[in-house]
# Entry
Amino acid sequence: MHAMWAKWAPPLEKSRLTTIAYAGPNIGAIIAMSVSGVLCDNGFESPPHYQRWPSVFYVFGTLGLIWCIAWFFIAHSSPASHPTISSDERFYIESKIAEATPTHRASNILMPCLRLKFNFF
# Structure
């Protein structure tokens, strides 16, 4: 996911978007636990209560397949390869990422731990 956000999220929006993306599984687990209890209690299997638990697997398996198929069609590795993104949006994303990318890096920088060690002597 980090590689995808690096190509898709402008720097000033990246922290908000990754927070939402990584909070999703936790929120999904809370919702799934609640729905699982309801499905086990009122499942769509035969009347004995102990035979209703497979409905949890049917429902969440179906939702997982729908999500997977949607992801394969909607998600793309970069804005340049996305077929339906507008040119203005593509330009905005790519220009903001290019502005934040450093053009050069100093090669003679000591690691901070080595700098501390050598400053004491």
In short: Residues 11-42 form the longest helix (32 residues). Residues 10 and 97 are 5 Å apart (CA to CA). The chain has five helices and no strands.
